[in-house]
Amino acid sequence: MSQPLLGKVCVVTGATRGIGKGIALQLGEAGAKVYITGRTLKPVKDNIGGSLQETAEEIRNRGGVCVPVQCDHTKDEEIKALFDKVQDENDGQLDILVNNAYNAVKAIMRNLKVPFWEQPMDMWDTVNTVGLRNHYICSIYAARMMVPRRQGLIVNVSSAGGLRYLFNIPYGVGKEALDRMAVDVAFELRKHNVACVSLWPGAVQTETIMSEVKSGTFDGNASNVKTKQVFIEGESIEYAGKAIVNLASDPKVMSKTGKVLIGSDLADEYNYRDIDGRKPGNFRQISYLLQSSGWNTLSSFVPGFLTIPKWLVSFAGHKF
Ligand SMILES: NC(=O)c1ccc[n+]([C@@H]2O[C@H](COP(=O)([O-])OP(=O)(O)OC[C@H]3O[C@@H](n4cnc5c(N)ncnc54)[C@H](O)[C@@H]3O)[C@@H](O)[C@H]2O)c1
Known about the structure:
This protein is of the alpha/beta class. It has two domains: about 10-280, Rossmann fold, CATH 3.40.50; about 285-320, no CATH class. It has helices at about 20-30, 50-60, 75-90, 105-110, 125-150, 170-190, 205-215, 220-230, 240-250, 265-270, 285-290, 295-300, 310-315; strands spanning about 10, 35-40, 65-70, 95-100, 155, 195-200, 260. A seven-stranded parallel β-sheet has the order 3-2-1-4-5-6-7, sandwiched between helices. α1 (about 20-30) runs parallel beside α2. The longest helix is centred in the middle third of the chain and has 27 residues, at about 125-150. The chain is globular, with a radius of gyration of 19 Å. The structure holds nicotinamide-adenine-dinucleotide.
């Protein structure tokens, strides 16, 4: 098996479950030494939330190297201790930081279609303390290790909610800010040969989302039912990991710095599939847009290569 990331040191935040776990599995399989973070160290019975030990074991079973670090990303001193440990144990080497930890999926799902003025006041902090502020702090510590070595890659796991309204207001504001953070961090890091990008996965079949699907969260309202279908046909948790392995192995990664990258576009560019052999839909595909709007028959007549160009997608934003 090829291990393009042998000798690389990575940090993936929020890897007990979900996309962070999938990314950590792929980075480990690609040969990197992967530091993973989360609050839950040991398996908890009947908990869909997973644990650091379970992710670490899966990485080791695939022949990878994993260092689980218990860290609550709402606590600045725990974030500092994480990066101190990485620095001490690797002689200052850090090659890849994946800003992924996110504390808000359940809160967002509980409040789908609830207007913002009726949502809990602390929704803002639930979404953006871990999902935005913490990513800035992690990026500071990572840059301090990457800049002196003149190499590194920071990936912010964001979403198409950074472009236009999705789920709720703190969500969209947080994602747009995270995309902008990637652009501005890249601006300052470019001359030090360190890359920073924002990555938009598609709809991902995480443990939490699939349990919400099963429990009927998306049933009833027609637009929620469409959302449910999009998740049922979504990506595995490892698809975004494949994107990051390819980016981190690309000698021309600096040509992508400062960009918002769509996971499915990277799958086309680097020519990989999801772990089950599928090619999950890309929201730029016209057939995918028709299907997710309920036009299934029409969508089956539209070839997959017909996509909306990115310059046109940017008009779906709202600036100017
Ligand atoms: N699920 C999707 O369909 C989807 C699609 C596109 C983008 N995203 C984005 O991907 C990112 C990850 O989402 P997910 O769906 O995998 O979420 P998830 O809830 O399944 O996993 C989040 C991870 O973060 C960890 N975490 C939460 N709070 C923490 C804290 N205080 N300290 C340490 N770790 C903490 C959790 O333990 C877990 O490991 C988010 O930014 C999300 O918006 C998700």
